[in-house]
Amino acid sequence: MSSIQVVCVGVITMDTIALVDVYPDEDERVIAKEISRSGGGPAAVAAVALSRLGVRSAIVGTIGDDADGAQVMKIFAREGVDTTGISVGSSPTSGSVIVASLAYNSRAMSTRQPVKQEALNNSAQELIRQAQWIHVDHVGIEQITGAGFIRGKGPLISFDAGYNVEKFDASKVDLFVPTDRQMALRHPTTNLEIALERDAVAGKNIVVATQGAKGSMGFSAQSGLVNSSGFSVEVVSTLGAGDVFHGALVAQIIQGYGLQDALKRANAVAALSCRGLDGQSMIPTTSELNAYLEANK
Known about the structure:
The chain is α/β, with parallel strands linked by helices. The chain has helices at 42-52, 67-79, 122-130, 140-146, 180-186, 192-203, 241-254, 259-273, 286-295; strands spanning 6-9, 13-20, 34-40, 57-60, 62-64, 87-89, 96-101, 106-111, 133-136, 156-161, 175-178, 206-210, 215-220, 224-229. Helices cover 33% and strands 24% of the residues.
């Protein structure tokens, strides 16, 4: 039997990130303070976050038969993420060129055309069948639905609902986590607190909204409405912080924390990840997280 607790399904990328003080003007050259090559993609970053926090994770998705694909596999191996569910497709591995500005605390991205996602291979399907949770992004939700994995018939499903979910039926997943902006589009005539409760009660699930630096807010039948403020750290880049939050939230739920504490701990993990230029290098371990929280009571 597989020992994998969470299978993350979705986008896998290899990104190049440059840190600058200010964005260049047209035809202007600026000197980068730092350049990093790092794995990315919502599902992939979540898988790394889960592994760092002591949860056995696997990644399922499609890469190319190229140098970027080989580098991605090395990163997952180093992080202890199971890759037996990855498929190698005919197109190049997805990736982005990202310029992060210190002055504006923002980023500009140019993304290579995403690869054609292969159907879940046999190893991926077996991993999913034996896992406790499936965590999916906007690509992964389509992948698992197409393969017949639905709520109530297998692992619990967590959805990183970052894109185009205005009309999504949240009852299809056990943990629905959009941004506050997506919640505003879903419920344009009400406030966030009521919107969270409305979706959670209708879906009989947990609904959480991320709010960037402000933190996060959630609702479940067990906890009611809970809110957790963000943490202040010296930010190098916010790249991947939302993806880190999603992985960290699932990790805290698996480790037995109630929703209030799970949000607080996931907020801290996401904040600490912003100390690095890429989305992965500064994700804390559980011992590092606990030490940070103890020092910031």
